[in-house]
């Protein structure tokens, strides 16, 4: 019927307990101190079992741009992203495969892919990502990244720059989105489509409203970038005369299925809007540092009662794709924002944010996010004999505050074991490596041109 | 005579070159485009060679406290460190072994161990560390951590707390230091003793002056903690009436052999003192976040011309001990401290800080720190076929900004290959793991008592 993980350490309120965890079909069917069944028994000795984490925000197709783009603020970095993006479907598939493998091997069982679409191959892009996620066996949310305003619109006073209107109409984009939903949205199979207008910096109200309508009609999650940079905060007042968060609430985009990547530049009033709408913040600390976006006020969110999850963000802005790294950084970074250590995020809180906070952010809190009998078996087994997790002082303390390296022994998604002995079972990691290596040898250095068209404007409006 | 690394990538001014690097005895004897000799040839295909980095500040004996201590500000955290420290020489040796192995496997060829001394076994402690470092083959600086003032002296107004005078006299400590130098200081063998008064928060002027005198007499490096916390900054004015940096300069402690761990709370005038004295700052970003110490003004140091190196700090305040992690964090963290991206640290600058900045910090700039013919062969070979370093966009970009995992193929220290195929050659890593595992099973949970004697005072003086 299923696996039994025997004598495994799990966290309990005051510490740890050693238990047997039984999986039947897709569910956790029992957590017992004594072993009753003798199905496929997995030795849990010197291992720690945790609920799977959610990688709450990434862009899988950036995998091939890792390490490539200089450290620049988001608006200029995006120019380089554009100039170095490939239109190759095979590369797109590899990016999703890479993202899925890295997520599984760093504690994640679920990924929110805010997925770029290849121009002219929009449905094929999503098909390639779905193929990769099904192959690897990860639970996936794919939010096709859409916008209906031109690149320059994202800069304060940006429309003064030479530009052409965006090529697709809002109606065409919404039509495409519905086609994606109809073809690919299949929660039972672990593939979920979400609406993903990129953010107010490049989206019209009509696009947000159309996406919200689709979300209501098909019960889809909503996923956007929100106030990642100071420039976006300036832009919101220029565009709406009010804060971007207030505007999004007014037009009905924020709800309990909405997750907001970054959320760096919010005011106290904005935070209250998130509380009222039960929206989720996805914290991407590595990316926020790499792009100099700022430190998101996560301790304020927690104090206010906003749900917070963690994300890696895309490989072009977090050239690592390790969820445990994002969790560590997203935990300790905030200690320098509040002198009172009693407000700091503990390792146990961090684990809960990564698992249950992540599950809430994708509207799955009743199904995943904790080791609870009856919930989906989305779980990760960590090898505590790995040097990076020794000695066993506090395994969760060291998992979060240390530098865990190749510590994932096994992963179950929807009750199915997709990683065993540190190896992803359904895909050939050596083949993935070889493909990336082959592509490296053929790749030519990109020419970064677009940045020259916008840099002086950026420096002027930002007072640099 | 030595190894030749064939067809290996090295960084050059405008990019990379593929070369052959020859090692003769302890030196880099040639870097050529064509291969002349046919000694032990190491295939450099798909590998990157860099000068070894310096782990400029750690406390090796904290290895057994990883993951153990809650996130607390330094002054309270130290109370827990005291309560959970072991007096076991075997554990001490294991800590040094662990630190050496982790440093080598994360790009380091040299470590500055600000080494706690076991009470009553001071010489034996150093002997255990020396044994570990010689066994593994890393270049080591050991700065015995000394102080002559009581624990409470480190708190603002701390002497109002009940306390006893420190048990050893300044003269006894200096006598011990000289004995350590005479027995262990052996630069040719790769073992260097440095003077290591912990910092002005627990050291008298007499101790600083005595250490400076030893440093002059034996040409030893000087290594201290400096202004790690806001509390220390307050204490300096309480103790000296001037900034701690100004005081240290007045008493003659700062010079070109002096490295200053942390250096978080310096003023612009303090920075000028570092420039004038050619002192080195050792940046420990992971620890500074974990303890909420603050973000050191590294971009200001670089702009002023202060030499900056990187360190991991001890395992109790950076539960990872991965130099590449410290370098990444110490690179991207500062992007949120200055909006002008033209001031940000590039990956190439970071590599140079880690290698040459580190070498300068231990007064070895003429001997190590770069791939230069005639210099000591302290070098690290990275495997670019590792998934975490793929694809090959910019290998140094990805090494610094990514999340490199088990990427070190080989390491040479003083011309001797001490790591090959990712394995430390002279020690048994499995034995190290087993020892740590055995100790885990026997360890009892420490009782954190001391914190209760100082916490309310700390909260009061810090306005919490």
Question: Which features does this protein show?
Answer:
homodimer; 464 residues; alpha/beta; five-stranded antiparallel beta sheet; 15 helices; 18 strands
What does this structure look like?
The structure is a homodimer of 464-residue chains. Chain A is an alpha/beta fold and 464 residues long. Helix content of chain A is 36%, strand content 21%. Chain A has 15 helices and 18 strands. Chain A has helices spanning 74-83, 89-104, 122-136, 170-184, 205-218, 230-240, 244-250, 268-277, 285-290, 298-304, 323-332, 347-361, 395-401, 429-442, 450-461, and strands spanning 3-12, 15-24, 27-32, 40-43, 47-51, 53-58, 108-115, 139-146, 191-193, 196-197, 222-226, 258-262, 280-283, 307-310, 379-383, 408-413, 416-420, 423-424. The first copy, chain A, has a five-stranded antiparallel sheet with strand order 5-15-16-17-18, covered by helices on one side. In chain A, a hairpin with a 2-residue loop joins strand 1 (3-12) and strand 2 (15-24). In chain A, helix 2 (89-104) crosses helix 14, helix 4 (170-184) packs parallel to helix 5 (205-218) and helix 12 (347-361) crosses helix 13 (395-401). The first copy, chain A, is globular and about 70 Å long.
């Amino acid at each position: 019927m299923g696996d039994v993980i025997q004598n495994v350490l799990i966290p309990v309120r005051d510490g740890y307990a050693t238990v047997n965890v039984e999986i039947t079909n897709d569910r956790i069917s029992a957590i017992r101190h004594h072993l009753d069944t003798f199905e496929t028994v997995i030795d849990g000795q010197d291992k720690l079992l945790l609920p799977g984490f959610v990688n709450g925000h990434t862009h899988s197709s950036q995998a091939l741009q890792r390490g490539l783009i200089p450290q620049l603020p988001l608006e200029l970095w995006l120019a380089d992203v554009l100039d170095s993006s490939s239109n190759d479907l095979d590369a797109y598939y590899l990016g999703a495969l890479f993202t899925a493998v890295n997520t599984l091997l760093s504690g994640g069982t679920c990924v929110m892919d805010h997925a770029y679409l290849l121009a002219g191959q929009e449905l094929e892009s999503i098909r390639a990502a779905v193929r990769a996620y099904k192959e690897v066996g990860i639970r996936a949310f794919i939010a096709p990244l859409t916008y209906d305003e031109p690149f320059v619109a994202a800069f304060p006073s940006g429309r003064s720059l030479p530009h052409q209107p965006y090529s697709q109409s809002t109606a065409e984009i919404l039509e495409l989105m519905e086609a994606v939903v109809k073809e690919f949205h299949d929660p039972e199979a672990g593939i979920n489509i979400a609406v993903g207008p990129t953010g107010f910096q490049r989206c019209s109200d009509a696009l947000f409203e159309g996406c919200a309508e689709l979300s209501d009609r098909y019960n889809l999650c909503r996923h956007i970038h929100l106030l990642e940079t100071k420039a976006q905060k300036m832009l919101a007042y220029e565009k709406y005369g009010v804060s971007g968060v207030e505007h999004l609430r007014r037009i009905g985009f924020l709800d309990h299925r909405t997750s907001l990547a970054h959320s760096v530049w919010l005011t106290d009033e904005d935070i209250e809007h998130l509380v009222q709408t039960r929206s989720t913040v996805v914290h991407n600390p590595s990316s926020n540092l790499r792009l100099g976006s700022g430190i998101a006020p996560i301790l304020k969110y927690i104090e206010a009662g906003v749900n917070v999850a963690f994300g890696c963000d895309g490989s072009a802005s977090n050239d690592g794709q390790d969820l445990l790294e994002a969790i560590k950084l997203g935990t300790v970074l905030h200690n320098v924002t509040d002198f009172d250590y009693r407000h700091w995020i503990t390792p146990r809180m961090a684990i809960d944010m990564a698992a249950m906070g992540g599950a809430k952010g994708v509207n799955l809190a009743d199904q995943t996010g904790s080791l609870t009998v009856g919930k989906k078996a989305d779980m990760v087994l960590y090898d505590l004999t790995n040097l990076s997790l020794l000695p066993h002082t506090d395994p969760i303390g060291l998992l979060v505050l240390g530098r865990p390296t190749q510590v994932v022994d096994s992963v179950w998604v929807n009750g199915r074991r997709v990683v065993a002995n540190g190896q992803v079972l359904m895909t050939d990691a050596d083949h993935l490596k070889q493909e990336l290596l082959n592509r490296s040898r053929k790749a030519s250095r990109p020419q970064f041109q677009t940045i020259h068209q916008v840099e002086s404007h950026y420096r002027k409006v930002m007072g640099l």
